[in-house]
What we know:
Elements: H1 2-25, H2 28-33, H3 43-53, H4 57-71, E1 73-74, H5 76-80, H6 93-114, E2 116-117, H7 119-132, E3 136-144, E4 160-167, E5 170-174, H8 176-179, E6 181-184, E7 189-192, H9 203-209, E8 210-212, E9 216-217, E10 220-221, H10 224-229, E11 232-233, H11 235-239, E12 244-246, E13 251-254, E14 259-265, E15 273-276, E16 282-284, E17 289-291, E18 294-300, E19 308-313, E20 316-325
Parallel strand pairs: 1-2, 13-20
Antiparallel strand pairs: 3-4, 3-8, 4-5, 6-7, 9-10, 11-20, 12-14, 14-18, 15-16, 15-19, 17-18, 19-20
Helix pairs in contact: 3-7, 4-7, 6-7
Amino acid sequence: MKTRKTGFIFLLLNIIFACSTFAQKYNEVDKIVLKYPKNFSTTEKLAERINQDFKSDIDKARAIYSWIAFNIRYDYNAFLNPQRTQGFSYSTEAEKQRKIKELNDRLYQKAFSSKKAVCEGFTALYQHLAELSGLKCEIIRGDSKISVRDIGRKNTSSNHAWNIVLIDRKWRLIDVTWGQGYFDSSKGRMVTDFSSIYFDTDPDYFFAKHFPDSGSYLGDKLNKDDFLNGPLIYNKTIENDFKIKSPNSGIIEAKYGDKINVEIKNLTKSDQVFYLNKRNQPVLIKNAKEKRGGLEFQILYDNNIGDYITIFVNTNSIVSFKVIPR
């Protein structure tokens, strides 16, 4: 009888947890869009449905984000085997813009019909649906930071694309490609996992992981060195607003015996904080102190630490640093 009761409580807790996770993952707009058909005959029909169901610009922009993230999958094979870039010539700015539009039209039509795309297709489809919904939207191309190997890179490259959309006289940052899921290196495949954090992302977090080809955002120059040399942050960092205050660089120079000081905002002592040593064994942080709205602690640099330190909070990776021995 006791086993049955324990099993029932466990099942109940799992149901409660699942419902809680669902509630946190999707907002009211998302829940409506989840009921939409996977297939619409045209992009105009989809935009018509969105404009019928939602009246505010922010809700329309979110509905477009959600539908694309729910229904368009990242084409990892196309990423591994990219088609040769087709250049074009032009004699006037008007001709250049017309040819860019023709290219983007082909991209969004292919993404919409095949239900798969790489970032260029995601962004072209988002821009097209936004414009059909009366929103001003642009595509931004630039660099992305997704791996510990990106920490301390010497140069940026143009390897990604995202959107900005104007809502209530404010440009919002959108990366629907990353909103639909991620690549799981341990499984060697894309994982579908809707995330809302790349819709209207805080610029401080966004530009820790993105760097536009122009080197600027809304006329303000961005610091390329900060992007290249900054720590790598993860989705849970943004989702929980875990601000990394120290170290302020992603590159740590240290010698054996040094203590690396770490400060992360919006953590408490009730959070389980640890890092992995070079044998992938968890090392629990035991010297953490609550201070200034977060946790401060030290990590001893010794021969058990490898080339990188990744800090976890409650099993989720939060931030990675590159360590250079002195």
